[in-house]
Automatic annotation (TrEMBL):
Residues 440-449 have a biased composition (Polar residues). This is FCH and mu domain containing endocytic adaptor 2. GO terms for biological process: clathrin coat assembly; clathrin-dependent endocytosis; synaptic vesicle endocytosis. Keywords: Coated pit, Coiled coil, Endocytosis, Membrane, Phosphoprotein, Signal. Residues 1-225 form the F-BAR domain.
């Protein structure tokens, strides 16, 4: 089982990295599209093509790494199945060793009893001789001694045989286990070597792309950019020929002395050039007609400039479209759930609009002044919307499909810490941090609570647990569940002054209850101490190193003096799991794959027995990838389909024993395919629950000087992987 747990951890790690690489590759592809939509005006236009090509190559490199990691994941999955079979086979093979162990234990006990019986009978015979017993009694005692001697001798021989068999069996078993362990380590080294080789090859490819990009940029000189612009906008390299000889050779005198044209004729018949050039191009500049009624004032150059300056021209189409593209992508990046993978950890804060996108683009004339039209200025790009024809799942704002993060953006106020006496749950924006490193709260500034050294100092505690489940098909015996947890203590900022001003502050001691279900406890060695000689397996006593705690709180308070409270990670633990019975949500998935359609059914059942105090599962989301070129989807209940990633998403309401059918239900979907059949894929499920834990661990303060003002409990799925069988 230890080997399987190691493989599962490695599997989850690789799957998580593959998801990150895939999301990064898709983001790079979007970036390349952004570069292609940028302005193509001016000499800088060819540089955008260099950016686009380089970005597309980088996206291809990361997608290639995703493909290699997926192959490695398949290899690890296969190895997990092999280890499960080997575990079962080895268990049968070492059954004889278990029998040998039990045999030598029973023989040892019998040997000890026969030895004691032999000694007692011998001492009794000697005592009777000394007391002068009758010959008849001595004979009876002698028979008993003889019988005890034979029994003792037989058990000595049995023990020798059992010992020989035990040593032989144990040697063989130890060698077998050592061989299995060596084979496992070698196999893991091969897998890690493949992983390192894949990453190294990707880095080499990225380096080559970078070198090519630098080389292309070096080759893109100012002269070449201007030359490309001249070639794209020019009309040719040859100079235009003369349209008429009279334009270049003025040997003959003209009879016309002015540019005035006779009113009755478009061409002048008295022009002497008509004799030499019968087909001549004439340019006529019509003089301004004076009118006493209307045109009494002539426009000056300044007036023309002023009037032209007041004309608002339509912006350059390419530049405007580029701004719209960025703005649309800005919304899609924050609102498009299906573009994100469930294994990718995402921020809970929505991305805000970029400030410059709300300002209209600069007005640049793109047409000659003679043909310019006066148009109203464009509307600000405040909140661009997607076309109505898109899927509703893409246009609507949805929450990212990722585990909810415990944020410090709005920490609980210090005043409730000083007054609240009962255990309660915090809202989502006031959750305590459960990160791996101690965090501080900064949203409310210094704590307004005034703490006195003679008062009981308030502290808060948070238990945060994460459950990962591995399902395969509909066999519950193949379900593996791993549950880990963190315990965090929260101290108000005012407590630091009391700790530093008191020579020897009261030692903070507490007791953990319901620890019999914990498989392993890992306390913070620098801050926490415990008594290893405790006999009660259901409780554990701990106390803090107060000088170390004071120094640590002082250090982080100096780094962030405006915080109202400080969180400290106290210990981590792993919970004993009992397979599918430890999973709060049990799943069974069925696929029916044909060349034209794919039928999918996901059965789920709420399992309140897995929790110490049953609580509702909230924000339940199920993400299903479907291959085969889906053209249409029918689902019950309604799901969101993302055609770009070929994934469907169900978002369910709270699931509990008070829900319909006591928390049981099914998700059904039928997909019409253009390139079937589909291949059954991995499903991802997420949910979280407030107010309860799976382990049932609780904390109780011991001694005086402190009081527990708040206790928060929650558990969530970092991600849940299910493997299905197709029928």
């Amino acid at each position: 089982l230890v080997l399987i747990y190691v493989l599962l951890d490695f599997f989850f790690l690789n799957n998580y990295q593959a998801t990150i690489e895939e999301v990064y590759s898709r983001s790079m592809t979007k970036l390349a599209k952004t570069a292609s939509n940028c302005s193509q005006l001016g000499t800088f236009a060819p540089v955008w093509d260099v950016f686009k090509q380089s970005t597309e190559k980088l996206a291809a490199c990361h997608m290639e790494l995703v493909r290699k990691l997926q192959e490695l994941i398949k290899e690890v999955q296969k190895y997990v199945e092999e280890q499960a079979k080997n575990h079962k086979k080895t268990k049968e093979e070492v059954a004889s060793t278990l029998e040998a162990v039990q045999n030598i234990q029973s023989v040892s006990q019998a040997l000890q009893k026969s030895k004691e019986n032999y000694i007692n009978k011998t001492l009794e015979q000697e005592r009777m001789r000394k007391e002068g017993a009758t010959q008849r009694d001595l004979d009876k005692a002698g028979l008993k001694v003889k019988k005890a001697t034979e029994t003792y001798k037989s058990y000595v021989e049995k023990y020798a045989n059992a010992k020989t068999e035990f040593e032989q069996r144990m040697t063989e078993t130890a060698q077998k286990f050592q061989g299995i362990e060596e084979e496992h380590v070698l196999r893991m080294q091969e897998i890690i070597h493949s992983y390192c080789q894949s990453v190294e090859e990707t880095h080499i490819q990225i380096g080559e792309v970078q070198e090519e990009f630098v080389k292309n940029m070096e080759n893109t000189s100012v002269e070449s950019l201007i030359q490309k612009l001249a070639e794209s906008k020019g009309t040719g390299k040859e100079r235009p020929g003369n349209t008429a000889k009279s334009l270049t050779h003025g040997a003959k005198p003209r009879k016309r002395k002015t540019f005035a044209i006779p009113e009755n004729s478009f061409y002048s018949s008295s022009d002497s050039e008509d004799e030499d050039e019968p087909r001549k191009f004439h340019v006529q500049i019509k003089p301004v007609q004076t009118n006493n009624g209307t045109h009494q004032h002539k426009a000056t150059i300044d007036e023309l400039k002023a009037s032209i300056g007041n004309i608002t021209l339509s912006p350059t189409p390419a530049l405007y479209n580029c701004h719209v593209f960025f703005s649309s992508n800005s919304r899609l990046a924050s609102n498009d759930l299906l573009s994100l993978d469930p294994f990718v950890p995402t921020s809970t804060s929505s991305s805000s609009s970029i400030p410059h996108l709300s300002v209209p683009p600069p007005n640049r004339p793109t047409t000659p002044l003679g043909t310019a039209t006066i148009v109203p200025p464009p509307r600000p790009l405040s909140r661009p919307k997607l076309p109505a024809g898109k899927l509703t799942g893409i246009s609507e704002a949805v929450r990212p499909f990722s585990p909810p993060k415990m944020s410090n953006s709005s920490p609980p106020p210090a005043a409730p810490l000083a007054r609240a006496e009962s255990s309660s749950s915090l809202s989502s924006n006031t959750s305590l941090s459960a990160s791996n490193t101690p965090t501080v709260g900064t949203s409310r500034g210094p704590s307004p609570v005034t703490l006195a050294s003679q008062d009981a100092l308030p502290i808060a505690v948070a238990f945060t647990e994460s459950v990962n489940a591995y399902f395969k098909g509909a066999d519950p015996s193949k379900c593996i569940v791993k549950i880990t947890g963190d315990m965090t203590l929260s101290f108000p900022s005012g407590i630091i002054k009391i700790f530093t001003s008191t020579p020897s502050p009261a030692v903070l001691s507490f007791k953990l209850s319901n620890t019999s279900r914990l498989e392993q406890i890992m306390p913070n060695q620098q801050l926490l101490h415990s008594d290893s000689s405790q006999s009660d397996t259901n409780t554990k006593d701990f106390w803090l190193n107060m000088p170390a705690l004071t120094a640590y709180l002082r250090k982080i308070s100096e780094q962030n003096p405006a915080a109202s409270y400080y969180n400290v990670d106290i210990l981590k633990y792993q919970v004993c799991s009992n397979g599918i019975q430890s999973s709060p949500l049990n799943l069974v998935v069925y696929w029916k794959c044909t060349s034209s359609t794919t039928d999918l059914r996901v059965d789920y059942r709420y399992n309140p027995e897995s929790m110490q105090s049953p609580a509702a599962l909230t924000n339940v989301q199920v993400l299903v990838p479907v291959s085969g070129g889906v053209t249409n989807m029918q689902s019950l209940p309604n799901a969101i389909w993302n055609a770009e990633q070929s994934k469907s998403l169900w978002k369910l309401s709270d699931i509990s024993d008070k829900s319909e059918n006591e928390g049981s239900g099914s998700l059904r979907a039928k997909f019409e395919l253009s390139d079937g059949p589909s291949v059954p894929a991995t499903l991802a499920v997420q949910f979280f629950s407030e107010g309860s834990t799976l382990s049932g661990v609780d904390m109780e303060l011991v001694g005086s000087g402190y009081r527990l003002s708040l206790s928060k409990k929650r558990f969530a799925t970092a991600f849940k992987i299910t493997f299905m069988d197709c029928f």
